Amino acid sequence: MGLPNSPSKVEAAYCCNRPSATAYIMPPGVYGLSNQLLNSPEKKLVQGKSKFEEIVSGLQDGSVDERQCEKQLLDLLCDETCLYPDENYAALGFPDNVLKHITSVFVAPTLLYGEPFGTRTNTVCVIG
């Protein structure tokens, strides 16, 4: 039984502070988000989204249980595999040594131009 006055349908919306982005209600599906725009074509996002779908399908078909799924998703979020070069980062203007550092799913914390930079947290919520 749902909470009183709770919506029977859950919707997600996307908005961004970049001028080229527009806000919209997202239809059901799988989306990827990094420091770029939603579903940007960078390698870590495309590969991460594909791996996410593979992991979740294992939960759906019963080949993994919820705990195994959670662990696999956290392992995915902690993946430090370098996916350099990635042409989607070329326009950022960073030197190669920085690009090599930021093209993994998990970016190990470091100082970037004197400021802290890197993955700060990972969260997996399995609902269903």
Structure, described:
Pfam families: TANGO2. It comes from Geodia barretti (Barrett's horny sponge). This is Transport and Golgi organization 2 homolog. The chain has 128 residues and is an alpha+beta fold. It has one domain (12-117). Helix content is 30%, strand content 9%. It has 3 helices and 4 strands, in the order ββαααββ. The protein has a two-stranded antiparallel sheet. A two-stranded antiparallel sheet has the order 3-4. The longest helix is centred in the middle third of the chain and has 19 residues, at 43-61. It is globular and about 45 Å long. The model has no long low-confidence stretch (mean pLDDT 88).
With strands numbered from the N-terminus, the spatial order across the biggest sheet is 1-2
Cα Rg = 17 Å
**Total strand segments:** 4
Overall average residue pLDDT? 88
**Ends apart, CA distance between termini:** 14 Å
Structural class, from secondary structure content? Answer: alpha+beta
**N-to-C SSE series?**
EEHHHEE
Characteristic terms for this protein:
single chain; 128 residues; alpha+beta; two-stranded antiparallel sheet; two-stranded antiparallel ribbon; 3 helices; 4 strands; Transport and Golgi organization 2 homolog
